[in-house]
Amino acid sequence: MPRRYWLMKTEPDVYSIDDLERDGVTCWEGVRNYQARNNMMAMSVGDEVLIYHSNAKPPGVVGIARVVREAYPDHFQFDPGSRYFDPKSDPENPRWYMVDVAFVKKFDRVVGLPEIKADPELADIQLVRHGRLSVQEVKPAEFRRIKKLARKK
């Protein structure tokens, strides 16, 4: 199966690329959107992920992670003390899933959303067309383009 590419959003004050670098590996929990969940369920070990800081100035892509564990039930959905608790989710038929990702690289500079929107090679990227989705597929050419933009001075 060919490698696929993804973009995952996080708020830097909640969990940043620096946190991922420190931790090495983390579970990507708390996704509560069906389309984003389905995207995580389509991930395979080895797929690469652009890490995107939303709610930042500017919001943008800050680095790369790799999927190291495929989708499994998000245990926070069953924890009444968690902000991600879902009383309607059944342990026999979980509603929400998560994946584990490992830190790969932090970019030297943020590839900001304004720059992404202005780049004709990224005109069709889901980030521009479906900006609110927290887990999105990225085409291989889009992934390569963002990596190239990150190397610009």
Report on the architecture of this protein.
By secondary structure, the chain is of the alpha+beta class. The longest helix is centred in the last third of the chain and has 12 residues, at 140-151. A hairpin with a 6-residue loop joins strand 3 (48-53) and strand 4. It has a single domain (5-147), classed as Roll (ph1033 like fold), CATH 3.10.590. The protein is globular and about 50 Å long. It contains five helices and six strands. The chain has a six-stranded mixed beta sheet.
Give the helices and strands, then pairings.
Blueprint: E1 5-10, H1 17-23, E2 25-27, H2 34-41, E3 48-53, E4 60-73, E5 97-112, H3 113-118, H4 126-129, E6 135-138, H5 140-151
Parallel strand pairs: 1-3
Antiparallel strand pairs: 1-6, 2-5, 3-4, 4-5
Salient structural properties:
5 helices; ph1033 like fold; 153 residues; 24% helix; globular; alpha+beta; single chain
Q: What is the CATH fold-level name?
A: ph1033 like fold
How many discrete structural domains? Answer: 1
What is the helix/strand order? EHEHEEEHHEH
Oligomerization state: single chain
> Which CATH-level-2 architecture?
Roll
Q: What is the number of strand segments? A: 6
Would you state the CATH class?
Answer: Alpha Beta
Instruction: Please give the alpha-carbon distance between the first and last residues.
Output: 35 Å
Q: What is the average per-residue confidence, as pLDDT, rounded to a whole number? A: 96
Rg from Cα: 15 Å
* Helix content range: 10-25%
| Strands ordered across the widest β-sheet | 2-5-4-3-1-6
Annotated CATH homologous superfamily:
ph1033 like domains
